[in-house]
Specification:
Length: 171
C-alpha cells in the first residue's frame, strides 16, 4: 500500500471519528466489544486503502465498509451467547456530563439509543445513517440498495422506533 493511501485512511478516520463512534455505539453497547469492532473497522479500511483512495465518494465508501464490518460483527455475535442489549447499561461516554437543565435531553438521548439498539439490523442500519445526516440516495449507495428500498426501510424503521419509544415511555 502506498504511503499516500495510508495517509488518506488516517485523514478520513480523523475527519469522521465522531460519526464512526456514534454509529458503532448503535451497533455495539458493550465498550470492550465496541473497541474490538472499531479495530476491525480500521483494519478493514487499512486493507482497502487503495480502493478507498480511488473511491468517488470516500464518505460513502467508509460508511459501507463500516456497516459491512458491523453486520459481520452482529452475525458472529448472534452465533455466540451474548448478554442482550436490554440488560446492558449504556456506556458513560454516550453523553458528556451536562448541566442540570439538560438532564431531560440526556435521558431522551439514552432512551433513543436503547430504542435504536433494539431495532432489527436492517432498520438499525438506515436509522444510524440517517442520524448522521446521510440522505436516502447516499444510504442507497452505501448499502447497495435502490433509493425506493431505502425510503421504505426508513419509513418502517421510523414506525418501529416510534413504537419502541412509546413502549418505553409507557412503563
Amino acid at each position: 500500500m502506498s504511503k499516500t493511501a495510508h495517509q488518506q485512511v488516517l485523514a478520513l478516520w480523523q475527519q469522521y471519528k465522531a460519526a464512526i463512534s456514534r454509529t458503532l455505539l448503535g451497533y455495539e453497547a458493550d465498550p470492550s466489544l465496541r473497541q474490538d469492532l472499531t479495530q476491525e473497522l480500521y483494519l478493514a479500511l487499512y486493507h482497502s486503502a487503495e480502493r478507498l483512495a480511488a473511491a468517488e465518494n470516500q464518505r460513502a465508501y467508509l460508511f459501507r465498509v463500516m456497516h459491512n464490518v458491523a453486520v459481520d460483527h452482529i452475525a458472529r455475535a448472534s452465533r455466540q451467547r451474548w448478554q442482550s442489549l436490554e440488560e446492558q447499561d449504556l456506556p458513560d461516554e454516550l453523553v458528556e456530563p451536562c448541566p442540570s437543565e439538560l438532564r431531560a435531553s440526556e435521558q431522551q438521548s439514552n432512551l433513543l439509543l436503547k430504542a435504536v439498539q433494539q431495532l432489527s439490523p436492517a432498520h438499525r442500519q438506515v436509522v444510524l445513517l440517517a442520524m448522521e445526516d446521510t440522505d436516502p440516495q447516499q444510504i442507497a449507495d452505501i448499502l447497495g440498495l435502490s433509493h425506493g428500498a431505502v425510503r421504505v426501510r426508513l419509513s418502517r424503521a421510523k414506525t418501529e422506533l416510534q413504537e419502541l419509544l412509546d413502549h418505553v415511555r409507557a412503563r
